[in-house]
Write a structure and sequence with these properties.
The structure is a homodimer. By secondary structure, the first copy, chain A, is an alpha/beta fold. Chain A contains eight helices and 14 strands. The first copy, chain A, has two domains: 176 residues, Dihydroxyacetone kinase, domain 1 (Rossmann fold); 146 residues, Dihydroxyacetone kinase, domain 2 (Hypothetical Protein Tm841, Chain: A,domain 3, 2-Layer Sandwich), CATH 3.30.1180.20. Chain A is globular and about 55 Å long. Chains A, B: Keywords: ATP-binding, Kinase, Nucleotide-binding, Transferase.
């Protein structure tokens, strides 16, 4: 294991110390627990948005706490769920009198955590609704969306719901927007190499020197096909098939696209891959109104990438384009 | 070689096609040559800022073309200089009547390119000044700064000069600011693994399974010491020594810090490393007014990082804090 760290067991807490040291004007923690991360710039009367999940995916999850985005994140160990107590403490801080929406990925531990936190919040009179991200088309067939993993496409839900809450929508309206973003978003990933969990100290899985695994999850969950790495354009075509099929995109439709590096893949390659995505969408007459290329949901040093596409209506297009500001994700209006 | 690409010889041009496809409202090219990249939002009457250099370092160099930043970049092959003709065409487009400042790294090929381009511009009546970045303290001893390589710290020069030009300073003033930023910036890097140049197809250098190389350049130029990887805090301490020594930072001083990942190092580790940087600076009574943590100057998939520190006066602090907007680097005021 070749990582910059001190002790493996301090990996997450020292990372968090670094984050608070770097961004004291934007992020802070509550309940005397650095894993209860909240915005340092709460907005009174706004619907609170809370997420959480395991560490090892920066900027996911905590990186989307910021203006026009989320209000808090409960931070777990590497690939581990945070506790219900932590999620509850974040909820209390995020509640600004208008209730709280949970948006998190479809993993058993996280569901348990947030369901219990919601009960604790209810007992305190805080209204909480929940939405579980499940954008990974490779993780279960169509028709079984409730079994699918949540991966990078959750960014689109954060962005749309975050902008909706910033506009002053109420809790039910923000949930409606989040559900619409989810219903219109699909993701597929591919991995070339494994990550290493610091406390484990060796690769989570092995993969042949010239192989790729299509459909792999961001913790190394098995994909749908392993085989020799193909030219970039062919890899993109194989991944776009199910995404475009499920979204039934047709001429005149508008989309936002997220080309997400999993950690070890250089940005140069992401742009080579995006070139093909743009070409295929242009051929179909689909208009790309917003493009993100970079690292948005990683698996530490894993090489690979994912493509997420969200079909836009006018409302989603407006919300995606809205200004946002976190230390990990800043955009100007437009 | 395990990379997402089509043909190795198309690596740079397909990357550029992807970049133009992704950001058509912000970037375009001139002279019918996609390697002559300029902003799509030129500002009439503003001093033009131009950079350039080899590909393989995204977001460097072209990623800093944007509002409040640079106006154009001449793009070379992977680790190769662009041509003088390309730099000249970018210069013509960047000139908005107030002259052009070149800011680029201290590499022989780039110096030849930009010196020749400056002559061509002069022949057309465009006033051009030049500043060569040389922030890498590991590449030559103090007193021989003119022999040092330019690495990640050039971001601070771009940011300060870009904001100065956006404020309306004239060419001589922008050069003064850029010189001040350079004089107050130092960088040191460390590598854990090599990158692979696509057309070469194998690692540029090899390094032991548990070794690091302190002071290595972003093309794999030899560093100053190779040895076993040490705990993160010790690595930071070794790197901060020369940086803090040369900047003679004392109690009450203010700085900006750039923790730059070289490509293969996860953001989690950068924050663990930053934790120590912040601790050492706090101990010395040095105040950090701006912190950047992420990938700003890479070497494709190379694992490693660099620390850059710029000592701030009030003017540099104001310029660093100014709004900026490129597809690769966006920040709100503050």
């Amino acid at each position: 294991m070749k990582k910059f760290l001190n002790k493996a067991e301090d990996f997450v807490d020292e990372m968090l110390d670094g984050i608070y040291a770097a961004h004291p004007d934007k992020l802070r923690f509550v309940a005397d627990d650095r894993r209860c991360l909240v915005t340092a710039r709460p907005v009174s009367g706004k619907v609170g948005l809370v997420t959480g999940g395991g560490s090892g995916h920066l900027p996911l999850f905590l990186g989307y706490v910021g203006t026009g985005l989320l209000d808090g994140a409960a931070v777990g160990g590497v690939f581990q769920s945070p506790s219900a107590d932590q999620a509850f403490e974040v909820t209390r801080a995020a509640d600004q009198g208008a209730g709280v929406l949970y948006i998190y990925g479809n993993y058993t531990g996280d569901i348990l955590t947030f369901d219990m936190a919601a009960e604790m919040a209810d007992a305190e009179g805080i209204r909480v609704l929940s939405l579980v991200g499940n954008d990974d088309v490779a993780s279960s067939p169509a028709g079984e969306e409730h079994k699918r993993r949540g991966v990078a496409g959750i960014l689109f839900i954060y962005k749309a719901a975050g902008a909706a809450a910033a506009e002053g929508m109420n809790l039910d309206e923000v949930l409606r927007v989040a559900e619409k973003a989810r219903a219109n978003t699909r993701t597929m990933g591919v991995a070339l190499s494994s990550c290493i969990v610091p406390e484990v100290g060796r690769a989570t899985f092995s993969i042949g020197e010239s192989d790729m695994e299509i459909g792999m999850g961001i913790h190394g969950e098995p994909g749908i096909r392993r085989g020799p790495l193909r030219p970039a354009d062919e890899v993109v075509d194989e991944m776009l098939g199910p995404i475009l099929g499920e979204l039934s995109l047709a001429k005149g439709d508008s989309v936002a696209v997220l080309m997400n590096g999993l950690g070890g893949t250089p940005q140069e390659e992401l742009y080579i891959l995006y070139r093909r995505v743009a070409g295929v969408l242009a051929e179909r007459g689909v208009s790309v109104r917003k493009t993100y290329v970079g690292e948005f949901a990683t698996s530490m040093e894993m090489a690979g990438f994912s493509i997420s596409i969200m079909r836009l209506d006018d409302e989603l297009a407006r919300l995606v384009a809205a200004q946002a500001d976190s230390p990990f994700f800043a955009q100007h209006q437009g």
